[in-house]
Amino acid sequence: PGNCWAFKGHQGQVVIRLPARVYLTAITVQHITKDASPSGTIISAPRDIAVFVSLLGTSGGDLAPEGDKEEETLLGMFTYNVEQDSMQTFPLKNMLLPRAFSHVKLLVKSNWGNPRYTCIYRVKVHGKVENQRASTQD
C-alpha cells in the first residue's frame, strides 16, 4: 500500500542530503501498520538501524564519496518496534559533535524477517538549521 523505499534483502543504506546544514537532534522512521498491510504482517519493516555523519569535510558536513576513506561518527543505534506506533522518533547524540551537517546516513542492519526485501515509508530528520533560531525543522 502506498509508496515505499524498498531495497533487496534485509540490509541497506541511504545517504540523505539535507536542504541546509542542520544540528541534528532526532530521526523519525515510518512503516505501515499491520492493519494497512494486505498480508496482515509487516515483516518488511526495518528493525535495527544506525545513523551516521562523516567528520571529513566538516566545513561542508558531507559524507566522503564512495571509495574514499571516511571517518564516520555514529549518532545513534535503535530498534524500530513493529508493536509500537508506525511512526517512531529516536533521539540522536549530536551533543558529542556540536556542529551542523548537510548529509546523514541511515544504515538498516536488519528487518523483521522478510528475506527478499525491506521497506521504509518515510524518514524525517529533525534538528536546528545552522544560522537560524528556528526551533525544529523537518
From TrEMBL:
Q: Where is the SUN domain?
A: 1-130
Keyword entries, A-Z: Membrane, Transmembrane, Transmembrane helix
Recorded GO MF terms: protein-membrane adaptor activity
* Gene Ontology CC terms, in alphabetical order: meiotic nuclear membrane microtubule tethering complex; nuclear inner membrane
Can you say where in the cell this protein is located? Nucleus inner membrane
InterPro entries, from UniProt? Galactose-bd-like_sf, SUN1-5, SUN_dom
> What PROSITE patterns does UniProt report for this protein, alphabetically?
SUN (PS51469)
Q: What is the name of this protein?
A: SUN5 protein
Keyword check for Membrane, yes or no.
Answer: yes
| Gene name as annotated | Sun5
Q: Which SUPFAM superfamilies match?
A: Galactose-binding domain-like
Q: Which residues cross the membrane?
A: none
Q: Which organism is it from?
A: Anthoscopus minutus (Southern penduline-tit)
Q: Transmembrane helix among the record's keywords?
A: yes
